[in-house]
TrEMBL record:
CDD domains per UniProt: Arginase
Keyword list, A-Z: Arginine metabolism, Hydrolase, Manganese, Metal-binding
Reaction equations catalysed: L-arginine + H2O = urea + L-ornithine
Enzyme type, top EC level: hydrolase
Family membership noted in the UniProt record: Belongs to the arginase family.
Alphabetized Gene3D superfamilies for the sequence: Ureohydrolase domain (3.40.800.10)
Cofactor note: Binds 2 manganese ions per subunit.
Pathway: Nitrogen metabolism; urea cycle; L-ornithine and urea from L-arginine: step 1/1
Coiled coil residues, start to end: none
EC number(s) per entry: 3.5.3.1
Obligatory cofactor(s): Mn(2+)
InterPro entries listed in its UniProt record: Arginase, Ureohydrolase, Ureohydrolase_dom_sf, Ureohydrolase_Mn_BS
Protein name in the entry: Arginase
């Protein structure tokens, strides 16, 4: 794993349905993300926060809320993430709402095209985020980034990163899903997205889900994790704008992160949708940082990597 880490704050809730995710990067810093990662022997550089348009809080236009502002924020994220990857550093994007995964992952995909690496995206989330303007009832673009990455969406979003589609659906593994809109279900199915929903995890266990999600990850694979904090059950992570009951427990989430760490292939990370406005004494940020620590190799015992 790359020991040189760059933190990039993206303080915006431009794509969300509630305000507050713009405070997420600072909450993660308050929860000592820098100190925790340095404690694992990592070289951490905090690049500060990106800037972009303010949230005008307007209704949808032609099925999209804040389309141009979302595009500007995602272009900034793309450029920042790509620059860190070009310097052979491991970027951690501190969100911000999950629409920003579009900019981050399009940059990772561009980097993989340039370096000849395979890409595997693990999308840890309560939601599939595979909506389109025709399907979404809200127009909130944080419900659309995976669809946009796969080429379903407006040109101003799908062309970020320079290739359409930025990724293929078969490169994505979604884990923890438990809230998918009716029309979105059909699109997920037709696109061939591989989803390990909570029913699968209930029946087969997190271990089986992660073994399949990480299958064929090898030394030439760039592993990107897009961690939406609402992936977690709201009992342990109340500080999100879109809570969905019945998510992974603390131990299930720890196992998920530890199995990713065991691959040694993690190369970029998003931490998204943390909303301090809904949190209790920064509890959710602290849980998120604890899980990120496991993602970067904290374990009870010394373990061999694959």
């Amino acid at each position: 794993m790359n020991l040189n880490i760059s933190l990039i704050g993206a303080p915006t809730d431009i794509g969300a349905g509630s305000r507050g995710a713009s405070m997420g990067p600072e909450a993660l810093r308050v929860a000592n993300i820098v100190t925790v990662l340095e404690g694992l022997g990592l070289n951490v550089q905090d690049r500060g926060n990106l800037t972009g348009p303010h949230n005008p809080w307007l209704p949808p236009v032609d099925g999209y809320r804040h389309l141009q502002e979302v595009a500007q924020w995602n272009q900034s994220v793309h450029d920042a993430v790509y620059a860190e990857l070009a310097q052979k550093r491991l970027p951690i994007l501190l969100g911000g709402d999950h629409c920003l995964g579009l900019g981050s992952i399009s940059a990772v995909a561009r980097h993989c095209r340039a370096t000849g690496q395979k890409l595997r995206v693990l999308w840890l989330d309560a939601h599939a985020d595979f909506n389109t303007a025709a399907l979404t009832p809200s127009g909130n673009i944080h419900g659309m980034p995976v669809a946009c990455l796969c080429g379903y969406g407006p040109d101003v979003l799908t062309h970020i990163g320079g290739q359409v589609p930025a990724i293929e659906a078969k490169w994505v593994r979604q884990i923890g899903i438990r809230s998918v809109d009716e029309g979105e279900k059909r699109l997920v199915h037709s696109a061939g997205l591989e989803v390990f929903d909570m029913r699968y995890i209930d029946e087969m266990g997190m271990r089986a889900a992660m073994e399949l999600a990480l299958a064929l990850v090898d030394a030439n694979t760039h592993l990107h994790v897009s961690f939406d904090v609402d992936f977690l059950d709201p009992d342990i992570a109340p500080g999100v704008g879109t809570t969905v009951r019945g998510g992974p427990t603390y131990r299930e989430a720890q196992l998920c992160m530890e199995m990713i760490a065991d691959t040694g292939r993690l190369a970029s990370l998003d931490v998204m949708e943390l909303n301090p406005a809904f949190d209790v004494r920064n509890k959710t940020a602290e849980v998120a940082v604890d899980l990120i620590e496991s993602l970067f190799g904290k374990s009870t015992l010394m373990r061999k990597t694959r």
